[in-house]
Design goal:
Length: 380
């Protein structure tokens, strides 16, 4: 279609040029014939003048024709290039015909046209390449809803665990729901029906467990890691329960955990006390062949006063909602955000009179490693 239009345009231009040249030739001849009969020009002088003027007219017309064709060809080339670009960008199947290197060149060219600055292009494409290189194990969270309730009153079951030092702690109730999707490949932590969650005694161990490069391989296999900040007496109590064979029952009674994968309840099988914390292993009869799962986790635990509560997003996450509910009459809580959508995060984080932080980010992706830190202190 475009080629036909181009051919018709060129033919039309040539026809118009030829007609103009013929008209000019006739007018020049008539003019000089008139002068020849009126002023008595010699015939050779008449021919010389006619030929000289015709050469000038022809040169002008030819120059006009060349310039016009050049402009129309440039416009057509630009239009064709735009159509090709639109086709490439809008049709992934067309892009698949190109090699990976060509695709990257197209990506860089597109980013450069949007950003303009070379350093900005390096920054953006460099970050994108990191994700492309990890696509074999890449995962995202399509939703993330985390509710934390912080109280001062403990159930009686905590008396023995905390060795009478309940006043040194606040009581945490957590409810987490998220949807995880694997862009390609499989995730080692949800590739079997054996699913683990971890509670770390140290902040260092928590961070390495979240990023899955922990020296203790079992923590890196946990789908969820939380910091369990308790004093040495409480840790010693857990060790004694392990020796007596009561750790499973004590963990169930204190943490009251519930784990669901794809709406299917998990059965707590093993509670293991390790040097760095506790690992609970569940058996969940969900379909491990799927590349998308929903995870729901509910549990309770104690936490020492003047400690931090960290919500960390270790995977790219869309539409995170984080709610932190506390008792303002009995505690002071300060929020620190290191979400990469800083303005959105802080606009949505409002402390109300009843003690509530509500961070809701809609229709945006939050990239790792980012999150929120709550510093909880007892009110004197």
């Amino acid at each position: 279609m475009k080629k036909d239009k181009k051919k018709k345009g060129i033919v039309g231009t040539l026809s118009a040029t030829v007609i103009l040249i013929l008209v000019a030739l006739i007018l020049v001849c008539l003019g000089y014939l008139y002068l020849f009969f009126k002023n008595g020009y010699k015939f050779d002088e008449l021919i010389d003048n006619i030929v000289g003027n015709l050469i000038g007219v022809l040169a002008a017309f030819l120059l006009f024709d060349i310039l016009y064709n050049k402009m129309t060809q440039d416009a057509y080339t630009k239009e064709t290039s735009q159509q090709i670009t639109k086709t490439l960008i809008g049709d992934p199947q067309t892009l698949d015909a190109f090699c990976e290197e060509d695709k990257k060149h197209l990506l860089i060219s597109t980013v450069r046209s949007l950003v303009g600055d070379d350093d900005g292009v390096d920054l953006i494409t460099g970050n994108m390449e990191k994700y492309f290189d990890k696509m074999k194990m890449a995962r995202i969270r399509k939703s993330f809803n985390y509710t934390i309730n912080v109280l001062t009153e403990f159930p009686e079951t905590y008396n023995d665990f905390l060795n009478g030092n309940i006043k040194d702690y606040f009581y945490v109730q957590e409810n987490l729901f998220y949807e995880v999707k694997y862009l390609s490949g499989k995730d080692k932590n949800l590739s079997t029906n054996e699913v683990k969650i971890g509670f770390s005694f140290t902040k260092k161990n928590l961070d390495s467990g979240l990023l899955e490069y922990n020296s203790d391989e079992e923590f890196s296999r946990c789908i969820f890691n939380e910091s369990l900040e308790i004093n040495s007496d409480a840790i010693e109590y857990l060790k004694n329960q392990k020796k007596n064979g009561n750790l499973y029952d004590v963990f169930n009674e204190i943490f009251t955990p519930v784990l669901k994968i794809d709406g299917i309840n998990g059965e707590l099988k093993i509670v293991d006390l390790r040097n760095d914390g506790i690992i609970a292993t569940y058996d969940v009869n969900f379909d491990t062949t799927l590349n998308e799962h929903s995870v729901k986790l509910i549990f309770h635990m104690p936490k020492l006063w003047n400690s931090i509560f960290e919500v960390t997003l270790v995977d790219p996450t869309k539409d995170p909602k984080i709610t932190f509910d506390y008792v303002p009459e009995k505690m002071d809580v300060t929020m620190y955000s290191y979400l990469n959508k800083e303005k959105s995060a802080n606009d949505g984080a409002n402390e109300t009179q009843n003690g509530l932080f509500d961070i809701t980010i809609k229709n945006e992706w939050i990239y790792p490693k980012s999150g929120i830190v709550f510093h909880v202190k007892e009110k004197q």
